From TrEMBL:
<dbReference type="InterPro" id="IPR027443">
    <property type="entry name" value="IPNS-like_sf"/>
</dbReference>
<dbReference type="InterPro" id="IPR050231">
    <property type="entry name" value="Iron_ascorbate_oxido_reductase"/>
</dbReference>
<dbReference type="GO" id="GO:0002238">
    <property type="term" value="P:response to molecule of fungal origin"/>
</dbReference>
<protein>
    <recommendedName>
        <fullName>Fe2OG dioxygenase domain-containing protein</fullName>
    </recommendedName>
</protein>
<feature type="domain" description="Fe2OG dioxygenase">
    <location>
        <begin position="187"/>
        <end position="285"/>
    </location>
</feature>
<dbReference type="GO" id="GO:0016706">
    <property type="term" value="F:2-oxoglutarate-dependent dioxygenase activity"/>
</dbReference>
<dbReference type="InterPro" id="IPR005123">
    <property type="entry name" value="Oxoglu/Fe-dep_dioxygenase_dom"/>
</dbReference>
<dbReference type="InterPro" id="IPR044861">
    <property type="entry name" value="IPNS-like_FE2OG_OXY"/>
</dbReference>
<dbReference type="GO" id="GO:0046872">
    <property type="term" value="F:metal ion binding"/>
</dbReference>
<comment type="similarity">
    <text>Belongs to the iron/ascorbate-dependent oxidoreductase family.</text>
</comment>
<keyword id="KW-0479">Metal-binding</keyword>
<dbReference type="InterPro" id="IPR026992">
    <property type="entry name" value="DIOX_N"/>
</dbReference>
<dbReference type="Pfam" id="PF14226">
    <property type="entry name" value="DIOX_N"/>
</dbReference>
<keyword id="KW-0560">Oxidoreductase</keyword>
<dbReference type="Pfam" id="PF03171">
    <property type="entry name" value="2OG-FeII_Oxy"/>
</dbReference>
<dbReference type="GO" id="GO:0009805">
    <property type="term" value="P:coumarin biosynthetic process"/>
</dbReference>
<keyword id="KW-0408">Iron</keyword>
Amino acid sequence: MAHSSTLPTIDLSAFLKQEDDEDGWKKAMKDIHEACSEYGFFLAVNHGVPLQLMSQALQVSKSFFDLPDEDKLDYSLKPAAATPPIDGSSTHSGSRTGIIIESPQGDKFEYALRLALGASNNKAEYVALLVEAKLALAYNDSQLVVNQVLEEMYPYFTKLGSLVENIINDCLGLPPDFLKEYNDDRSLDFIIALHYFPATETDNVGKACHSDGNSITFVFSDGVEGLQVYKDGEWISICPPEGTLVVNIGDIIQVLSNDKLKSAAHRVVRQLGKSRYSYAFLYTIPGDKLVEPLPHFTVNKGDSPKYKGFLYKEYVQLRVRNVTRPQDRVGIAHYEISKS
Ligand SMILES: O=C(O)CCC(=O)C(=O)O
């Protein structure tokens, strides 16, 4: 049983307009700090991503996902295409691509990745919707309409990621631009278009309960409910109005802040008789960054670190392995330092 949304809605316009709006700015900072400590989630309006582009993106992904499977498979990477590995360290070729129908954890959705991930298995396939010249991915020309929309949208999300990261930097009282300097490479960010199939009488799992392994995530959807956030033993249903973004803190910020900010568990529940379409933009950090509680929240305050340090790419690899080894599922608790 889930309760309906009580997530705070935060107006980001004070951060985006030219003229000074100190009151608006202070209020938004305070609200974001509270929301990220309490829920790990907030809703954002006046966020700078054009609403018309968001709505167009949903239309094109719906048209894409409505195609028959055989046609969608034509959109997959050509076999010889080089597929970037998840840690961005080098390229390798020959990964299978296609469309996810069902993963071993019971997730049932289709997704299309801006970057093709270098991991797959017999049950998990995916399609690369976007291409960056530097990744040298081959793709089918007829995908261009989807690509164009995503490519147009992408820089807005990169900018927003940097803005929200900066707000979080200041909420946490870190030195100016600390997180910006730490997170200085955008090559692992990606955008995914998702399609959740209607639920059946016996199965409504869309995306199983998880927290996000990255830094900050932005989601928007077509108004069909399904996203739920776990808080204080209850699931809260999030169904924001059109044009509103769901913003959530990922595991990296939770670890860096030594749990000052929260990477909340969430899931997607499929609805009877209804498909659901959404997009998620994942703002990440470079693969070779050491992730550990910052001294500002440990030694400088006399607090113990709650996590062991790790490289981001190692964590991502463990999470990718979750797909093939769900029995050994790894989340951020893997790095927790036990209290005893
Ligand atoms: O589709 C959604 O609303 C959320 C997707 C999600 O939870 C994720 O990508 O981590």
